Structure formats: structure tokens, C-alpha cells
């Protein structure tokens, strides 16, 4: 049976919406074969095997926020990556190919466009950001449908459908457990956020009354895990748990009173789905400054507190934590407001549109 091929990955912002989509697809068509394509360096190598889907790897690098040598290697390796993608498509003969963004998405979708005149396939894109990247803007003219998160991005696509962002199962508002402690969840994505890690660890190292009745779970990410792991081991803080990566995010969201994180579109969708108060620290080098725009849109509606990274100092963090600890009512205000940004049934809408008459 011809199935579904999903291309993309690199970060959780690309992978988790894809996982949510395939979960919805399996509910409609449990027997449909589903394969993923990623790269050896992406987070997909950790997540997709846990989800028990086949993962195929191609070698391609990044073009954004990398040095000139990485960019050059990516450009030179692109033809070989496209050839590898073409070979994989010819082998699997999928009925549907969905590009979700990330390193592998470009070569696979380019290969799919080349083969579309010869193979009967439905091609689709998913775009989470208000301003799409160059690859998706170019590919949009060749695909059958594009799924978007922001209506403002629809002008870049042919046959756009605004669905919001598909989120993982288990993410929903939950009844809070009673605790005298302020529970703070800190994360910066799979690779981590160095700016956030530096500020939080510095504040913990300096200690002080801000840590009284506060519990922290800190996801450090893979990039600087060893460095900050050693620091925490030396400090031995009683009220901080730290990890390289968190696989149980639904449980972590339920535990948390307050979240400190970046402002990627997928992260904001999860915060909205779980109705979690948050301090947003936009990644200052995001393409087209899209994270700051995301954060500003939410903060404008009182859905979160936004702080630019240059202003996210240990002293500011301590003050914010003490303010939230002493004024728990402000958490409820943020929770109610951010919940308005949630678009339910996003994954189901994508799945239904992809499958069409294959149901």
C-alpha cells in the first residue's frame, strides 16, 4: 500500500507537529505505512525511533545561523542529498509527501517536485512561521496544499489552509496540584539556549531569597550540557533538577506553574494548549526576527511576559521569580490569556486533508 512520507526535522519545532499529524493520520487510517526522512544530526534520530516509525537519513546541513564553511558544505552537498531523496521516493513510492521544515525537508521536497510528473503523488507543506523561509516560498508553487499557522503567511502559498500548529497528544490544561512552592520549568529546545542557561545557572550560583519555596526543572540541551552539568554538580542545588532533554513534556507542563523558554511557534502553541504562564526570551538571531514577532503578538494580549535576551540578566530573573511567587494571581491572568491562542483539532484537520479519498 502506498503511504505517507514526512520530510524534515532538526529541532522539536519541526518534529513534534509532524508526530502529532501522524498520530491523527493513524486514527483515520491505522494501516497506512508512514516513513520519516531526516538527517543524522537532527533530533529526529532520538524521537522518531521512540515513536516506532521508520526513519531514513540523508546528509544535508544548515544554511541559517551557521558559519561560512557550513553553508558552503550544505550548498555543495545539496545535489547529492536531492539524488538520495529521489532514490528513496522511487523505492517507497509514497502516495503523499509532507514537508514540515528543517534540514531534510528541502532536498526531499525538491526531489518530489522533480518526480511529480512521473509519479501520482500528493505534495504538501507545513509552515509554522508568519514569514516562510526561502525554500518553502519557492516550493509553494509546486505543491498541492500548504498548511499554515498564521493567516498573514497565506499570501506566499498556493492553496493555503490555516490550521494552527499540530501539538502532541496529552497537551491540555490540567488541574493543578497544591504546592507551596513555585514550580518553574526552563527549556530552550533540543540543543538548548545558551543565553537562558547562562542566566539561570548564574542566578542559582549566586543564591539568595529568590530560591526560597521555588522548584526548578531545567532542560539544558545537548550543545552545552557537559558544561552546565558540571556546574550544577558542583553547586548541588537542592531545589533544581537538570536534564539534557525531556521526553515527558506533557507531564512537565502539568507540573509547572511558570515556564521560561524561547518563542518558537510550536512552543507557543504548546503553552497555549496547556494554558501555561510563561516568560518568553526570543532567540535574537532567528531568521527574520520571527521569534520576537511571535512573542510580541502574545505579550500584546497579556498572554506572556516577554524579555529580550539582552535584558534577561540574573538580577531581572530573580525579581521576576519573586514577583510571581508572591503574586500567584498574575499567573492565572497569563494562563487565561494565552489559552486564547490555541487552535484545537489542528492535527486532525491536516490529516483529513492529506488523506482525502484514502480514508
Keywords:
single chain, 359 residues, alpha/beta, Rossmann fold, 2 domains, 7-stranded parallel beta sheet, 6-stranded parallel beta sheet, 13 strands
Can you describe what's shown?
With 359 residues, the protein is α/β, with parallel strands linked by helices. Helices cover 42% and strands 15% of the residues. The model has no long low-confidence stretch (mean pLDDT 91). The strands form two sheets. Strands 3-2-1-4-5-6-7 form a seven-stranded parallel β-sheet, with helices on both faces. A six-stranded parallel β-sheet has the order 10-9-8-11-12-13, with helices on both faces. Helix 7 (225-235) links the parallel strand 9 (214-219) and strand 10. The protein has 13 helices and 13 strands. It has two domains: 4-165 and 344-358, 3-Layer(aba) Sandwich (Rossmann fold); 182-341, Glycogen Phosphorylase B (Rossmann fold, 3-Layer(aba) Sandwich), CATH 3.40.50.2000. The chain has helices spanning 12-28, 44-51, 68-92, 105-115, 134-139, 194-206, 225-235, 249-255, 265-274, 290-300, 314-326, 329-338, 346-355, and strands spanning 4-7, 34-38, 55-57, 96-99, 122-127, 145-148, 160-162, 182-186, 214-219, 240-243, 258-261, 277-280, 305-306. The protein starts with a strand and ends with a helix. The relative contact order is 0.13.
Amino acid at each position: 500500500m502506498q503511504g505517507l512520507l514526512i520530510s524534515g526535522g532538526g529541532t522539536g519545532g519541526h518534529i513534534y507537529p509532524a508526530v502529532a499529524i501522524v498520530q491523527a493520520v493513524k486514527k483515520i487510517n491505522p494501516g497506512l505505512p508512514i516513513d520519516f526522512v531526516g538527517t543524522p544530526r537532527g533530533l529526529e534520530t532520538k524521537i522518531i525511533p521512540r515513536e516506532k516509525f521508520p526513519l531514513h537519513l540523508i546528509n544535508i546541513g544548515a544554511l541559517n545561523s551557521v558559519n561560512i564553511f557550513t553553508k558552503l558544505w550544505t550548498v555543495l552537498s545539496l545535489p547529492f542529498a536531492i539524488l538520495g531523496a529521489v532514490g528513496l521516493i522511487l523505492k517507497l513510492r509514497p502516495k503523499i509527501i509532507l514537508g514540515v521544515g528543517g534540514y531534510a525537508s528541502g532536498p526531499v521536497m525538491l526531489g518530489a517536485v522533480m518526480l511529480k510528473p512521473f509519479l501520482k503523488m500528493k505534495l504538501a507543506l507545513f509552515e509554522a512561521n508568519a514569514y516562510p523561509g526561502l525554500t518553502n516560498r519557492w516550493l509553494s508553487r509546486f505543491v498541492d496544499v500548504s498548511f499554515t499557522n498564521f493567516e498573514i503567511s497565506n499570501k506566499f502559498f498556493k492553496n493555503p489552509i490555516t490550521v494552527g500548529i499540530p501539538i502532541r497528544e496529552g497537551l491540555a490544561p490540567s488541574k493543578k496540584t497544591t504546592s507551596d512552592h513555585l514550580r518553574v520549568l526552563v527549556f530552550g529546545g533540543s540543543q538548548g539556549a545558551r543565553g537562558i542557561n547562562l542566566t539561570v545557572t548564574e542566578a542559582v550560583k549566586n543564591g539568595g531569597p529568590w530560591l526560597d519555596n521555588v522548584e526548578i526543572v531545567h532542560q539544558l540541551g545537548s550543545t552545552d550540557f557537559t558544561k552546565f552539568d558540571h556546574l550544577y554538580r558542583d553547586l548541588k542545588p537542592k531545589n533544581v533538577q537538570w536534564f539534557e532533554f525531556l521526553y515527558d513534556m506533557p507531564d512537565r507542563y502539568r507540573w509547572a506553574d511558570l515556564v521560561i523558554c524561547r518563542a518558537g511557534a510550536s512552543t507557543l502553541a504548546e503553552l497555549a494548549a496547556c494554558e501555561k504562564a510563561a516568560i518568553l526570551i526570543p532567540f535574537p538571531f532567528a531568521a527574520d526576527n520571527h521569534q520576537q514577532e511571535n512573542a510580541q503578538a502574545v505579550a500584546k494580549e497579556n498572554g506572556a511576559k516577554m524579555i529580550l535576551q539582552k535584558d534577561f540578566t540574573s538580577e531581572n530573573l530573580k525579581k521576576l521569580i519573586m514577583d510571581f511567587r508572591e503574586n500567584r494571581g498574575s499567573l492565572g491572568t497569563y494562563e487565561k490569556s494565552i489559552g486564547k491562542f490555541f487552535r484545537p483539532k489542528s492535527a486532525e484537520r491536516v490529516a483529513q486533508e492529506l488523506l482525502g479519498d484514502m480514508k
